[in-house]
Amino acid sequence: MRPQHVSALVVVAILATGIPAALPAQQRDPAVEGVWRFVEEVDHRPDGSLIKTGPAAGYNGLLIFTSNGYMSSTIMPMGRTWRRASVTPAELRDTFEGASAHAGRYECDTTKRTIRMENIMSLDPADEGKWDVVGYRVQRDTLELSGPWTYNGEKLTFTIRLARLK
Predict the structure, then answer these.
(1) I need a surface site. Which of 25, 55, 149, 164 has the fewest CB within 10 A?
(2) With 0-12 CB in 10 A as exposed, 13-18 as middle and 19+ as buried, what is 152?
(3) Do the beta carbons of residue 28 and residue 108 sit within 8 Å?
């Protein structure tokens, strides 16, 4: 493992475990706490019609919400076959464009059913220091996150489904 990867893992571990509870009880929802595996993303146009975005093979990833108010998310496109020693610039660009990784604090608004997630660190440096707000719903061991986003200049609504890992 490269030194910069070790440093990133140490920072995430400190954020996830070493800092006292950052959220008052009213900003927590125990139902979202845990480790969630990416299942699917469904995107809709404003008229309700479906649109396919992302890699043909789909995504793989994890979203972690800790009980002390921190989160970490890594989503990678599936179907990658390259190796670091032989990867092409085009393969790296495709991976980067299809990937998502960020970590930071989170706050739940159980009345509005939204989660605010801070990007303390992000794959895209332009996102660092910003907060994302998404809707959420937990049904048994399924977490759905949803919200607006723009894809190729078109305004869409996404719904991401994740399964709780036990």
Answers:
(1) 25
(2) exposed
(3) yes
